[in-house]
């Protein structure tokens, strides 16, 4: 299940970065960059924590906070 999430995360990151480069080269308008970066950022922050979790140490379920 992690592989599709990693792919979506990578595509979202590309949707955040690539339009800025294309705008710098004059290929797309600034408004398109803003929307693409906005959507890419939201998707990246929503998907990345799902696959980038950390393993809990042994006995962590016994610790009371």
What does this protein structure show overall?
By secondary structure, the chain is mainly alpha-helical. It has one domain. 69% of the residues lie in helices and 0% in strands. The protein is built from two helices and no strands. It is elongated and about 55 Å long. The two termini are 31 Å apart. The mean pLDDT is 88.
Protein traits:
about 0% strand; about 60 residues; mainly alpha; elongated; single chain
Blueprint of the fold:
Blueprint: H1 2-24, H2 30-51
Fraction of residues in helix? 55-70%
**DSSP, total strands:** 0
Binned strand content: under 5%
Overall 3D shape: elongated
Distance between the first and last residues' Cα: 31 Å
What's the quick description here?
The protein is mostly helical.
């Amino acid at each position: 299940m992690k592989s599709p999430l990693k792919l979506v995360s990578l595509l979202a990151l590309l949707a955040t970065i690539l339009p800025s480069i294309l705008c710098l080269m004059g290929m797309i308008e600034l408004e398109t960059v803003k929307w693409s970066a906005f959507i890419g950022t939201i998707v990246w922050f929503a998907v990345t924590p799902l696959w980038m979790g950390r393993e809990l140490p042994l006995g962590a379920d016994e610790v009371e906070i």
